[in-house]
Write a structure and sequence with these properties.
single chain, 46% helix, mainly alpha
């Protein structure tokens, strides 16, 4: 039953076209064929994806990468903590004194 959904053609339409009852299939206009790429930039439905260009990492490679990232994270946290401590030692700036405007009398 589902095999009819996976074929590229429609048997009822194909039969109607063969006996002359179906719609006439016309070639696409020239401007349409010029504007469409010859190669698709996406994988159409039902097509297997291409093989991976690189092999998957082994368990040891994954663990080594995790350790490297963990060391980098610890380094970044140490730099951030140092910056936080430096910010605490700096006093807040004093507010700028503003002189009140005097009213002019006529």
């Amino acid at each position: 039953m589902l095999a009819g959904c996976t074929t590229d053609g429609n048997p009822v339409r194909d039969t109607a076209i063969a006996v002359g009852m179906g719609p006439k299939i016309e070639a696409a206009p020239e401007f349409v064929t010029r504007s469409r790429p010859a190669r698709l930039d996406f994988i159409p439905v039902g097509t297997a994806p291409p093989a991976r260009p690189t092999a998957a990492r082994t368990i040891d490679e994954v663990k080594a990468t995790e350790a490297e990232l963990e060391a980098l994270r610890a380094s970044h946290e140490a730099v951030a903590q140092s910056a936080r401590q430096g910010g605490e030692a700096t006093p807040a700036p004093a507010p700028v004194p503003i002189k009140p405007k005097s009213k002019k009398t006529p």
